[in-house]
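Researcher: Hi, I'm a grad student and pretty new to this. My advisor asked me to get structures for two proteins we've been looking at. I'm not sure of the right format, so I'll just paste the first sequence and hope you can take it from there.
Model: That works fine. Here's the first sequence with its structure tokens right after it:
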Amino acid sequence: MLGTVSNSDEEGFTFISCERLPAGMFVCYNDAGKNILCRVGDAEPLNHYPQEFLMDTELDADEVSGFYGLDPEDFKYYSYTASVVGFFDNTMGEFVNPRTNPACGVKIERAGDEVLKDISKIKKGAAGSAFLGNVLGADTGVVLSVRDIVSQHVSVIASTGAGKSYTVGVLVEELMKPYNMAPVLIFDPHGEYSSLGEIQNMPDFITPSYRPKVRIVKPESIKIRISDLSVSDFISIMDDGTMSDKMKTLFRSAYHSLKNNGKKKFTRNELKQEIEALQDSTNEPTIEGIKWRFGKMYGSIFDDFQTIPLADYFKVGQLTIMDVSGIEETSQQLIASVMLRRLFDAREGTENNRYNETHVDKFLPYPVFVVIEEAHRFAPHSGEAKSKSILKTILSEGRKFGVGVCLVSQRPSKLDADSLSQCMTQITMRIINPTDQQQIAQSIESASRELISELPSLAKGQGIISGVAINTPTLVRIRKRLTSDVRGRSKDAPALWAAQRKYEEKHEMRGVRADEEMDVGV
């Protein structure tokens, strides 16, 4: 027993306890044989010491109260607010609120495993499960439904250093387990997920009939086939702010002329020839201006034949990490745009029987999952990005065709609100910025206000999981990763400086030493 109900109203109820309980903790009470799950809110002392007892810092308040004949234990009780979650209905598969609060005098208990297990929709280790951690303050595991994550998307939001990438690593580990064998792609702008390659040789992931594969695609290997670009892609690359409307109109004419002639796949020179074919005495300077800007299409990431091979990147039981670190941000957006557009077309065409086994580059007969790191770059709240439109399309329509997305960001206020609201499962970790907290509160319907208020006080590795993949919003302690987490950690600058100094002392560095050979006097 933890305490006793003292009052209730339409907002919830209060109970008295002598134990210190953290906000967000689960408790329960019994009502007609049913265990009713509740969530602890704010707390305040039931009785306050007289101010005079506290004015002398040299004296202990308990000793002063004892001196005056008061029982110090009377000041150790707390009044807690709490809200009712409900009882778990096995038929409906969810918590049902009884619509009544407990009466005064009802005993409040600590929620045990037999109650907390119903927080998860699926059992740990079952097909389609993802074990992410334990209920904060308890040993009960929190297991998400992979089916709901993939079909209705997920967001991972946290401030820098709160464990965002670490948590994504845990989620990806679960997706690659033998009971899931998911085809996963991580779009990695910082090159921080390469350690996940360890899963290929770890016993936890291997069975007699299954061994996961990891494919790491380096920046120099990423190519965009010229014919995979839309006309708006071309113009966004070519236009430096000085491209006139006449130039854009003529370029569109050349592009569509090539497409209308049945050229689904064309080269840069073929498109250039179409542009030149439009030249006459009235538009010669304009065509020359287009050709000069078209020179940008001969950059390193563009190719006439090579492309993003969907069939190789998305295989059952394979994790593909697209390392786009070192590529400028606008090019990252373009790569993401082309990859997502081709992926959506492949899944939609396969589902609608437009593509079959003969369409090697477009046939994708199973759902896939894509992790977008630094999501606010690719779907910004304000302004445009080359990838924003297709990403919003996939988030709103992708569930019909089996394209699941995980948006990862440390600044939700900079992330497109519509995109964030389409993620029906949310993993939210420490967020300190009030603007970011407000954005989360507006975009995430299932997270209660009490839990949102807990975001600044969450420790590293703690988070709030809410949404369709879990039965009720829950404070969770993320489990330990099986793979190493190197790139996500902060650099220990003093240790690195000391190591470098020792290296220099051991190996006399070549070059001019300022204090010996240069005049540095003032």
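Researcher: Oh nice, that was easy. Here's the second one.
Model: And its structure:
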Amino acid sequence: MASKKINTAKKDSGYEAKDIYVLEGLEPVRKRPGMYIGTTGPEGLHHLIWECVDNSIDEAMAGYAKNITVSLLPGNRVSTADDGRGIPVEKHPQTKKSALETVMTTLHAGGKFGGEAYKVSGGLHGVGVSVVCALSKWMKAEVCRDGARYAQEYVRGKPQMAVKKVGSCRQTGTIVTFEPDAEIFKDTNFDFKRILNHLRQQAYLTRGVKITIEDRRAPQLISYVFYFEGGVKSYVKYLVAGQALTHNVIFYTSGEKDGILVEAAFQYTNEIEPYEESFANNIHTGEGGSHLTGFRAALTRSLNDYAKKNNYFKGEDESLSGEDVRDGLTTVVSVKIREPQFEGQTKAKLGNPEAKVAVEAVTSDGLADFLERNPQDARAIIEKCLLMAKARKAAKAARQTILRKGALEGLALPGKLSDCSSRNAEESELYIVEGESAGGSGRQARDRHFQAILPLRGKILNVEKARLDKMLDSKEIKSLIIALGTAIADDFDISKLRYHKIIIMTDADVDGSHIRTLLLTLFYRHFKLMIEQGHIYIAQPPLYRIQAGKRIEYAYVEADKSEILEDMKKETKITPSIQRYKGLGEMNPEQLWETTMNPENRVLLKVTIDDAKSADRIFDTLMGDEVLPRKKFIQAYAKSVKNLDI
């Protein structure tokens, strides 16, 4: 019998029991912070504050807290305080440690996993303040409870002492002060405006609770106080401020179904784009979810029922689509639910199917009553929706006539497009340039393999003031849409994008800025997904060419110019010559390639949308029909303008 040969070559594989690592306590958070806060960039940094504030909001929703304060302190420290019940400090029966230490240093520990401490809360994933503790260089928790003040300090998630009594208190509440860890976050500077916007939103969603934000980082204290009695109705009023309104009375309804509390409010404006915000237990669900789906279904059905009942439809088969009833709609939907099921750790989408049923029922009842009680507002809303339906049909007809399928598939690319030879969209770039002069320089300067050039003649149509059917009559816009390959509106398909970098390259003067703004308006209104997925960029050509002898440097901002000149003075006695570039056409192809188009040297600004509503308002103000808001904007910011071309 032949003996078996045993292969011993890989016996020492280095994979044994000792190689299985068990991360204890908060180690998993420090090892993989992105799993718990989404990112270690600015969004994740500010998420630390939201986690602390969420605990205070939960106390407010439970009816125990009336005041919440967030303070930005010197040294990148933040303090959040509330006058709720205070976190318990007695020994926990399971951990045999103080309940305060357990909450601060243990994942999935808190008053939201059982019992009756919280009927509803935003922190049901259980990471909460313990994650803040793990990702903080230093943290201190203070609790006022039963007439005494207790405290405990932590360094990178580890307690530095036992919970101890440090004084007395007349009130109750919790104070958490933390300093984010620079080992985790590259930038630990907090953005006051971002925090202000978030806390304003929370104040609208938590009626009757006063939220104070203080910036104590500078000698001059900056303080804001938010307090709203109107709930989401007040929030809608804030969101539509300064816009032309379709109807006067804001729709608002609230109710409870199957234990789910529902609040919904909306108002139509004369805008085209809808704006929707949804919340579950005060957590902003940026991707919507079942509650928003329920609201949309109720809105479409209720408006169709009312229009049919009051003979607004000319034909029996006529009806309003979901898109028709959402154009120009600003809406806020908020639900309080016992056990929310969020999709993803960052809670961007609500998954509970029962939330759809509850919101749909409450909204349907409330809207039917609203339309009957406010006939003038009802008429204005229905007429706007019918107008949107008519415009949508006209736009669809124009799209079918002008943008035939063959053209969109690249079979008839515009003649002015100098395409690249690569058919790999991931490496391909499209430069949108201003005028034939810059187009000519760009064609000579580019790398033909992956860089395409599309020159535009003059300023494109301001799409903020034009519907789709008018927009498609513009030759420049039509050429751009065909070059992109994605089509537009209902036919839009991001997977057919022919270039993964769309680079706007205009002159550094007033006309160039105007053209850039018009293009950004086009992309924001009709190709927003391209911005959201990071495909839109702005080229940064240099402002100056500085030469001293054989040494040539380029300055992209004023600060670069001063630094280069200072450096040249130290190096040589020759007086530098300075050339101010007014346009791309002033550069020869070699200079344009070296400074603006060569991936190894160029500076590109990626276009992002941090705050969609803020961006929407700016485009409305600068590009809309109303003159007065634009005048006020110019007056407000005139003194802060830099590099104005005269």
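Researcher: Is there anything I should tell my advisor about the second?
Model: You could mention this: The first strand starts at residue 67 and ends at 73.
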